[in-house]
């Protein structure tokens, strides 16, 4: 009678982590990692226990953006201890290889790294684990969507058509995989000239808002091209940790996602 219980598909959600939120984009270079890092810092500032898993394996910029470097420590049980900055515990392949070295891996190795980063990192108790996905609709997103009980995904796009077309594919994939879509974030839409105050739209105007409307998903934030955001990313001082307008924009985003 009864027989054997059905084997469960291996789950990839660390025990102490309440929620995993993925940050994706259709294309590279639209500011996905910048948003992931600053959102993580803003959530930590708001009192959440936050982790950041930089799963953008081919372009791991998370450590630089948080000012972290050096190999993480390993405890007696061989668990990796994620280093912490700005209240955010972070893990990234970028902490395992020298900066400037290429990661030359095939898909299965990538999946191995992802599993290791979820299963062999001592994340501890976290309210939110932010996952910075590789751009596009590849394996990492697929695996996480199927095995990690994602709370939802946030998609970052610039307003240009080429970025939006790819972002749409990402949203479509999330829908097909039943991953809740928190919404779209428009990045680098406006540029305000520091000399004359003129507002320009180098990547077009209104495209992400239109896209959000036509897809029926919320537009979560509109973030301008901002020198401090770029400098902060390069120098390991995330703009969300400061006090200015961008810090307030990220605080707003963090509170929308905490609702
Ligand atoms: P992705 O993760 O999509 O490849 P990144 O977050 O690495 O993109 O951003 C690419 C570059 O653009 C980085 O140098 C980053 O500092 C810069 N950047 C991103 N968002 C902004 C912004 N709103 N204003 C100015 N520079 C930005």
TrEMBL record:
Binding site for ATP: 26-33
Keyword ATP-binding: yes
A molecular function (GO) term: 4 iron, 4 sulfur cluster binding
One biological process term in Gene Ontology: iron-sulfur cluster assembly
Keyword terms, alphabetized: ATP-binding, Hydrolase, Iron, Iron-sulfur, Metal-binding, Nucleotide-binding
Lineage: superkingdom: Bacteria
UniProt entry tagged with the keyword DNA-binding: no
Subunit-structure text: Homodimer.
Family as reported in the entry's similarity comment: In the N-terminal section; belongs to the MIP18 family.
Stated role: Binds and transfers iron-sulfur (Fe-S) clusters to target apoproteins. Can hydrolyze ATP.
Protein's name in the database: Iron-sulfur cluster carrier protein
Species the sequence originates in: Rhodalgimonas zhirmunskyi
Shown part of the complete sequence: 103 to 361 of 365
